[in-house]
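Example record

The entry below shows one chain as it appears in the dataset: sequence first, then structure tokens.
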Amino acid sequence: WSQLKKSGAEYEMPGPHRLMPYEKVLVQPPSDDLKALIQRKDGEPVYKMTIHDVKFDKEGRDLLLDRGGTPLGVASTSGYEYVLRQTLEQAKAHAASSERCVAEPWKPDAAELERYRSKYRLK
């Protein structure tokens, strides 16, 4: 642990809370700065994206909602969606280049996956 780079936890500063406040950074369409941050290899290893201040609509509408259910923005064009999709693609590319992942691909348990999808009303 002593060799790891130390980072603070201040909002909007380098570190896990860089993407805070969510309503300002992630609800809006991704800025050029956000896109560059996610694409770079020298960013922080983890970004906190807790969804309790901003929630995806559970009724299947393309909306992000505040805690009270008031619409904040369009989910599909939001920074949230951008970060989730880009990091998924980065993970897939990393897995494809890893000998271990190629030799032993991970497969989710079908029943567990269905329970998760049902619980969170995912398609």
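Notes for this example: The mean pLDDT is 83. The radius of gyration is 17 Å.
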